From TrEMBL:
It comes from the Bacteria. Gene3D superfamilies: Alkaline Phosphatase, subunit A. This is Alkaline phosphatase family protein. InterPro entries: Alkaline_phosphatase_core_sf, Phosphodiest/P_Trfase. SUPFAM superfamilies: Alkaline phosphatase-like (SSF53649). It comes from Pseudonocardia xishanensis.
Length: 389
């Protein structure tokens, strides 16, 4: 028997596009640096230099529940923001990097249909659910999948010195090219050089913009579960890193720290590779365990929806593509984007996930997951520190 959901979990938490979502962060930072553009939805003080640090997996609900492990982050956190849908890394990084909602930038899932009958893994920029993954950076150029200028490009065009600081392996990756192209990329390997490179890139004369990224909190949440002892110990290290950055901020500078999603512990798994009702009529299955794009065979939408609803029951919100667009799950949707969205869009609730034990064996085993429209996954902190006099 399924566990009953609490009353406040009945409705999905829809992203606050245009008001207070990840897509509003960089427009606010660019305005603070004096880069011309529309008036931002989030107000920041004018600064000479700014750093935006994205901590993968840092959700507001988790930070609130583990505030003693992160006193610096907790003390500086203001009103939370929503991320976007799906609430997963490649979607959120692209919304952050472009200042656009998923329906406009077009990265609408961890895996999604970017061309007929082929799924793109937007994290690795490879084919998905094929016997061997194929690098798709030439066949599906990131600059075409996501054609809009990034915030980093806009800053650089206004003569701001722009630096990205992140894992060495991300330099030139498909996602970096899609979401964060522009400026100089500085590859690092650990918290120590991430911290020092952010400080170095902020220092010196003139206007400066720095983007930093750290992945390990998300990794430990996936492997051990959010709030686990390894996760908490990593949060403590991140808190100390942020405290160091605050201490080392040069004059007239701003540090903004946020996350790309929260995380939940999944204990109830529905295996789409083994459950026949979840396979019948399905041509392609994209997304991730908490947010699925279901691409169905011609004329099968109603039957597939009924089958999935019968299996998942109250463990999922299941809507058609048109309904998801009408209800603003993806924000405004550009003309070329609807075909990338599943005929059905499935957002999981509670502790449930739709896994694929054959096509996605690694992620299917992980206890920590994210991607849906719950507060635990949608809400991320907006953490600010400045040396503006």
């Amino acid at each position: 028997m399924r566990e009953a959901l609490p009353v406040d979990a009945v409705a999905p938490l829809l992203p606050r596009y245009g008001v207070r979502s990840l897509a509003e962060v960089f427009p606010a930072v660019l305005a603070a640096l004096g880069v011309p553009g529309p008036a931002p939805a989030i107000s920041l003080p004018p600064v000479r230099a700014a750093a935006v640090l994205l901590i993968d997996g840092l959700g507001s609900e988790l930070l609130r529940d583990h505030a003693p492990d992160a006193p610096t982050l907790a003390a500086l956190a203001g009103e939370p923001m929503t991320v976007g849908f799906p609430s997963s890394t490649s979607i959120s990084v692209t919304s952050l990097g472009t200042g656009l909602p998923p329906g406009v930038h077009g990265v609408v899932g961890i895996t999604f249909r970017a061309c007929e009958d082929r799924l793109l893994d937007s994290l690795k920029w490879t084919s998905h659910a094929e016997p061997e993954a194929t690098d798709l950076r030439e066949a599906l150029p990131p600059e075409q999948i996501q054609p809009h200028d990034t915030a980093l490009q806009r800053a650089a065009a206004d003569h701001v010195r722009v630096t990205s600081v992140g894992p060495r392996s991300f330099r030139g990756s498909g996602l970096t090219r899609a979401a964060l192209r522009g400026g100089h990329y500085e590859g690092v390997i650990a918290l120590g050089d991430l911290t020092s490179e952010i400080v170095r890139a902020l220092s010196g004369p003139g206007r400066r913009l720095v983007y930093g990224y750290h992945a390990d909190l998300d990794t430990l949440g996936h492997l051990h579960g959010p709030g686990s002892t390894p996760w908490r110990f990593q949060l403590r290290q991140i808190d100390r890193m942020v405290a160091t950055l605050v201490e080392q901020l040069p004059p007239d500078a701003l540090l903004l720290v946020t996350g790309d999603h929260g995380m939940v512990q999944v204990t109830r798994r529905y295996d789409a590779d083994q459950l026949t009702p979840l396979r019948l009529g399905v041509r392609l299955l994209g997304g991730d365990p908490r947010a699925r794009h279901v691409y169905v065979r011609d004329g099968a939408v109603a039957d597939v929806r009924a089958a999935w609803q019968d299996v998942l029951g109250d463990d999922a919100w299941i809507v058609t593509r048109d309904q998801a667009i009408a209800e603003n799950w993806f924000g405004p949707v550009a003309e070329h984007v609807p075909e990338r969205i599943g005929d059905l869009v499935v957002a999981l609730r509670g502790v449930a996930g739709v896994i694929r034990s054959v096509a996605e064996p690694t992620i299917s085993r992980l206890p920590g997951q994210h991607g849906s429209l719950t507060a635990e996954e949608q809400l991320v902190p907006l953490i600010l520190a400045t040396t503006v006099r």
